[in-house]
Design brief:
mainly alpha; Hemerythrin-like; 77% helix; 9 helices; Hemerythrin domain-containing protein; globular
């Protein structure tokens, strides 16, 4: 239970490290973190299980990684531009130096993850162009290390940065950040994004998302889900 009954009831999803209670509903943030964790587990399994010689499997996997990386880069970019600077300004004004160090760590972790994502992309490209055991083994190392780095970052964010957000941002400031988080994706990504964020969710959480997003979301999800699921089966056929 929340200590303050007026606070929204936060969700806890599989793999989530902590729940940051407070005045701001972190529903959207936890949904994104769940999707990132789910994808990384699937990629790690697929890279290890997909036969080196299956030319038809590595191309869809490589394309799927690019979609994952675009969404993650956008998510981190919104935090870098519209969340950490606001929190840093407020913590600097309050003289809370430990919080300032935390925000510096969040930004630094983003910078470390970017080259890891590019290394995985290059590894998939090599598997498409020249599949062999050496390239697959190298790709496995890159995917495993990227997953470890991102899982550690998500845990750090959930246990420390999101509680800082809860106790620092005003309702108006958090609403502005949430608006920015929902912008920036091209319309062409909607057929992927809508079913992507719902995949693997507990039924009651998925139903809440669809209910709160409105009837248009529900209709579009029904339209896009079948094609998305077929593409997922092609990419992760061996996972």
């Amino acid at each position: 239970m929340n200590e303050n009954s007026t606070f929204p009831q936060q969700i806890r999803l599989p793999g989530q490290s902590s729940v940051a209670d407070g005045p701001h509903d972190q529903f959207g943030m936890y949904l994104m973190h769940h999707a990132f964790r789910r994808d990384l587990a699937a990629f790690e399994a697929a890279v290890r299980a997909t036969p080196v010689g299956d030319d038809g499997a590595w191309g869809p996997l490589a394309a799927r990684w690019q979609r994952f990386a675009v969404i993650l880069h956008h998510h981190h970019g919104i935090e870098d531009e519209h969340l950490w600077p606001v929190l840093l300004q407020k913590t600097a004004a309050a003289g809370t130096y430990e919080d300032q160090r935390l925000l510096g760590a969040m930004a630094a972790e983003h910078e470390d993850i970017d080259p890891a994502l590019r290394a995985v992309e290059a590894g998939f490209r090599l598997m498409v162009e020249h599949p062999c055991n050496d390239h697959r083994n190298a790709l496995d190392v890159h995917v495993t290390s990227t997953r470890a780095a991102l899982l550690a970052h998500l845990a750090h964010e959930e246990t420390q940065a999101l509680p800082l957000l809860q106790r620092t941002l005003s309702i108006e400031e958090n609403a502005a950040f949430e608006r920015q988080a929902q912008r920036g994706y091209p319309l062409s990504m909607l057929p992927f994004l809508l079913p992507w964020v719902t995949a693997g969710l507990p039924v009651e959480i998925r139903d809440r998302l669809v209910r709160e997003a409105g009837p248009a979301y529900a209709v579009l999800l029904r339209i896009f889900r079948g094609r998305w699921e077929r593409a997922e089966r092609r990419a992760f056929r061996y996972a």
